[in-house]
Amino acid sequence: xxxxxxxxIGAGAMGLGIAQVSAQAGYQVSLNDIxxxxxxxALKAITKxxxxxxxxGRLAAExxxxxxxxxxxxxxxxxxxxxxxxxxxxxxxxxxxxxxVFKRIDQTAPQQAIFGSNTSTLPIAAIAAGTGRLDRFxxxxxxxxxxxxxxxxxxxxRHTSDETLRISLDFVKSLGKExxxxxxxxxxxxxxxxxAMLNEAVKCVMDGNDPEEIDKAMKLCCNFPIGPLALIDLVxxxxxxxxxxxxxxDFGDKYTPAPLLQQMVRGGDxxxxxxxxxxxx
Length: 281
Ligand SMILES: NC(=O)c1ccc[n+]([C@@H]2O[C@H](COP(=O)([O-])OP(=O)(O)OC[C@H]3O[C@@H](n4cnc5c(N)ncnc54)[C@H](O)[C@@H]3O)[C@@H](O)[C@H]2O)c1
Prior knowledge:
2 domains
């Protein structure tokens, strides 16, 4: 099967990036969100990102208009997926919500269409459970910010077919990105390894280490581009906490969130988005 039409469900930080890189690679994109305002903001963000490329001489002004012309937006889920060859879901990280979205899409998307979820931690088989296409279901985990990050984690569910995996691999390659293939346990490879490290960094703060010293140590001594605590502030303490809770379900107590992380989330110290986390913004 050849992919021509891509539907992206959820036009937040990830969905808009996925829509942008898909349109840049020549796909017709249908971008869906429950919020009209969210769709407007997404289109503005995509335009701004493309404008920057034009300013830097990496993209011709005409190409920007062609790319934008490939993206249609709609709040109607059925309409968004009607002609889709590939559906990529990027709604909030909530299992019940994702299951509900896919159950509804399953009824209107073409039979042969492949379903992909951009979940960071939730097992793919659980998200796919309510659909009639376990063999055509895969995890396509893009990184943030999507246009800049080279790697995409592909997650093969227990019933994902070879054909689905191959088509998904080719699709990611066509975006100019590279894949790593992960087995379908909570957190896959990236979140499983990363969040364990982030949790340990929070425990180092609890043990009396200064956040700045922790970040400095990991940047200077391990060549990290960003310190773990600055990264939690960037991603959001609530998101990291949520991921750890999901992985605790599969792997037990070693993923128990550090008490300080729980306390910070209760106190609204989520990082950049609330103006305070391990640092002040
Ligand atoms: N932000 C990251 O760094 C990152 C990185 C990798 C993966 N992810 C994953 O990507 C997914 C999306 O994350 P995000 O950061 O873009 O979230 P976000 O909060 O920025 O955006 C989510 C969007 O989904 C929309 N939405 C909610 N319910 C919907 C529905 N029923 N139908 C259509 N749209 C709906 C919301 O209106 C919102 O615009 C999550 O599963 C997250 O775990 C996030």
